[in-house]
Give the backbone structure.
Amino acid sequence: MNQWQVGNVKITRVIEMEIAGGTKFILPQATRDKVREINWLAPHFADKEGNLIMSIHALVVETPTRKMIVDTCIGNDKQRSIPNWTNLKLPFLEDLNKAGYQTDEIDTVMCTHLHVDHVGWNTMLVDGKWIPTFPNARYLMGRKEYEYWDKAESDKVDSGSAADDLNLGVMGDSVRPVFDAGLVDLVGMDHRVCDEVFLEPTTGHTPGHVSIHIQSEGEEALITGDCIHHPCQIEHLDWASSADFDQAASTTTRVELMEKYVNKDILIIGTHFATPTAGHLKTKDDGGEGYWLDTGL
Ligand SMILES: [Zn+2]
């Protein structure tokens, strides 16, 4: 478990799974040879052969007034097209409890976007029905993001996009049930959740993608979501993901994030970054091209 304190806000990582290798489909430019050239990635974000290491986890953001969970992973019992993601029986809720949180005390659920691996634990299967996992929470979803997936589903048009195919069934088992329970608030892309937490638009990966900005007692953090899938994209900002809705826009978003946050005292917490998961964006000490993530290790 990783945990970070940002002013009065405590952020806790609850891991669903960590994956080494087999991730090249998501970042086609990140070949083993190219990854090995990025000398700061191993051993945490890549192995010495050049295979990327990634993680699927949720982040609990506890402020003085809120207990919020950001991105709810893949979930159990869901039928998915990726073999390693289908019909999972993982102890995620037990691990959430071990981290100190009961499902009924979570008061806010926030999905950075509505992809399959970010909404799964919105619901769980009980007596053959999908019910909200967090019955006392408001589920915040970006209005623009929701409208895109709602339309994609109702059009039933095969867009030919691999990412959209991966998302089949997700609205039905992980989004609609929380709507039907009356728990969803559709919000703008710069919505302020509470004094310490606000959304920041980081589109491209999906049309309504947002990151989560935390500010407390002069300290700052940013939970990226998938605008940066893997730290290798910090060195190569133009390495877009095959799951991106608009690869040019996701690249622009990464360029803008670097302009805003490089060499600044803001902790960058990745939604798929393997342990240690967080660090600071820095220019290269040797004056070399590109940026890197300084995890302090
Ligand atoms: Zn995604």
